[in-house]
Amino acid sequence: MTDSPDAVLRRLAQTPALPEDAVRGRSAIELGRRPGPRDWSPAEIFCHLRHVEELFQIRFQTILGADEPKILVFGATPEALAPWGIGGDVASARSRSVG
Fold it and tell me: Considering only CA atoms, which of 70, 40, 14, 27 is closest in space to residue 6?
């Protein structure tokens, strides 16, 4: 069962307080410390969230501003990106991604 639109909006309105509460009172050193060698620090997680939010804002604006928007998928291959002029030539991008 899916949530009602009102329930989703209430949850979204509460969301910004969750990360704020999680980091309030912590030092920059604590926020920058990784809990494990393969784990992200809280600061890295916040940076990731900021970048993803920026990406989705671009996507939302594209969807709203175009009649038939083309949205690139995450993990797109160099071949899929080439027609958009993203990432340089395919051979060069492929050689950089191997290894």
Answer: 14
How many residues in total does the chain contain? 99
pTM over 0.85: no
Closest to 71 measured CA to CA, from 81, 48, 79: 81
Rounded CA-CA distance 96/99 in Å is 8
Sorted by where each begins, the domain ranges of the chain are 1-67, 69-99
**H/E element, 17:** helix 17-23
Residue 72 contacts residue 81 (beta carbons within 8 Å): yes
Q: What is the pLDDT at residue 28?
A: 93
Instruction: Report which of 43, 18, 19 is spatially closest to residue 30, judged by C-alpha positions.
Output: 43
Residue the block writes with tokens 């620090």? 41
1-44, pLDDT tens digit by residue?
A: 578 999 999 988 998 888 888 889 999 999 999 999 899 999 99
